[in-house]
Amino acid sequence: MTAHQAPKEARTPLSEFPVSDKCLGETPRFDDAPAWIYNHDNPYLHGVYAPTTRELNQDKLEVIGELPTDLRGTYYRNGANPVFEPKNRYHPFDGDGMVHALHVSDDGARYVNRWIETPAYTDEGAAGESVSPGVMGPFDYSVSEFGIKDTSNTDIFCLNGDLVSLWYNAGNPIALDPMTLETRKAFHLDGRNKPKMSAHSKVDWRTGELLYFDYNDTPPYMTYGVANAKGEVVHEVPIDLPGARLPHDIGFTKNFTVLHDLPFFHDLDVLKNHKLRVLTFHRDIPTRFGLIPRFGESNTVRWFDCEPCYILHVSNCWEDDDWVIMDGCRSVNPMPRAYGDEGELSHMLAYMRLEANNYRWRFNLVTGEVREGDIDDLNTEFNKTNPLYGGQKSRYAYHQYIPTHDEGGYTLRFTGLVKYDNETGESGRYDYGVGVLGSEAVYAPKVGATSESEEDDGYVVNFVHDTKDWSSWFCVFDAKDIEQGPIAKVRLPGRVPAGFHATWVPQSR
Fold first, then answer.
1. Are 39 and 30 in contact (CB under 8 A)?
2. Where are the transmembrane segments (predicted)?
């Protein structure tokens, strides 16, 4: 079902064009975007991706429909929003972190957005220009311990009164005020001697514990730990890996954490000699998933070999007798073909196409057997489930549909919301509409819901961005029936650029 019909005079946004079309003349001149973006023919600086220069705080927002009385809490979404013109080629991972929040309370809806004041953000603000290299290099360790800018622009979670922003490359997390989004300080777990944390460290809503990991280019190549709900480390161990890796996510059950050793990684010699991180998918190396008891020691990890693949995001994991089940999105082609007509950005655009589909892995704790296979072959990712069911058997997952290259989807664009029944493989889909693109959608439990409540008796919420008039909206879907479209929409007071990951924090938390 389609939300909107495009008017005939609607302009095609720049993000719809290949870079080689040299279509800067088609770019709308936003009054809230920095002027320097028009010097660059890079789709991730234009259209729905164009950064904003505004920080807003506005309540009593217009609502179309009616916000449910049992929906109370905040939708947070992180993303890239560069302040200064990049010194080298721009990659969408390079933008300074900016968090957008939509608070839903008895007083209605309130929107807030703010930059995350990372050390790099502060340093560049003082310099008045970009001084940090980006993902496409060259890496410069005199500027940053990571060789590139730690932007804290990727994911977000809430723990012990702090909203915490994370970076995809295992960076230094930042603590924010959950209501105002003001930067408080660098986030640090009590009892830990280093701050680094991966983008997808997980909060277990059942226990309140934070399950975290980081990774490095030197041994130990991975560290895994658990902190309690007060932010105190209660367990941490090094994880033995064959070499430097770039894992992105972890999964967890009630008793185990699932670690990832993936055959898509960089060559340290190339990084050292050429100051570039060049990723290669090693099709002759199996993907390994390591099951470690939640409070297990390093030597208790049990590795399971699977078909070579890359996995960005886990939906959920649980135990079923002798089996551990993991649902997520699998890519067997994490570095898709680069097209020559896309110019010097062709390899970046290929990587950002993101070819992936809904998949299930099963690991037998007694026999060591692995069973794996597709749930569906549709190109979807940014998959989320009901967080009250985290670590226990769940059925439903909510994904973003990503058009393939053959469908004109050469960039990371979300054109529809897909609800999966992972038991049957059946799905329902809501297309946002012509020229409308979405953000990651998250499950928002009803007020008072528990892990005993019906799994999909709640809401799914996200932002959408209409490229026909550049308006942005907060959408509320009935989780049982997303195909009917939003049951309520909130008009946001400003244009919200597309971004990365999101979370829902109930008012009670």
1. no
2. none
- How far is the C-alpha of 477 from the C-alpha of 328, rounded, in Å? 22
Cβ(449)–Cβ(17) below 8 Å: no
Q: What is the dihedral of CA 134, 138, 141, 142, to 10 degrees?
A: -100
pTM of full prediction above 0.70: yes
Residue with tokens 């310099």: 127
Q: Is residue 422 part of a domain?
A: no
Structure tokens given for 216: 């490095």
Residue tagged 């932007």 (tokens): 151
- Annotate 112-149 with b (16+ C-beta within 10 A) or e (fewer): bbbbbbbebbeebeeeeebbbbbbbbebeeeebebbbb
3-state secondary structure 77-110: EEEECCCCCCCCCCCHHHCCEEEEEEEEECCEEE
Residue 244: CB atoms within 10 Å: 17
Residue 79, domain extent = 31-396+494-501
**Per the structure, how many domains does the chain have?**
1
434 within domain boundaries: no
Q: How far is CA 374 from the centre of its chain?
A: 22
CA distance 4 to 221: 48
Burial bucket for residue 266 (CB in 10 Å: 0-12, 13-18, 19+): middle
The answer as to whether 388 is a domain residue is yes
- Please check whether residue 211 is in contact with residue 201, taking contact to mean a CB–CB distance below 8 angstroms: yes
Q: What is the pLDDT along the chain (509 residues), one digit of tens a residue?
A: 223 222 223 323 333 333 333 333 356 778 999 999 999 999 999 999 999 999 999 999 999 999 999 999 999 999 999 999 998 889 999 999 999 999 999 999 999 999 999 999 999 999 999 998 889 888 888 888 888 999 999 999 999 999 999 999 899 999 999 999 999 999 999 999 888 999 999 999 999 999 999 999 999 999 999 999 999 999 999 999 999 999 999 999 999 999 999 999 988 888 888 888 888 899 999 999 999 999 999 999 999 999 999 999 999 999 999 999 999 999 999 888 777 767 778 888 888 889 999 999 999 999 999 999 999 999 999 999 999 999 999 999 999 999 987 776 666 789 999 999 999 999 999 999 999 999 999 999 999 999 999 999 999 999 999 999 999 999 999 999 999 999 999 999 999 999 999 999 999 87
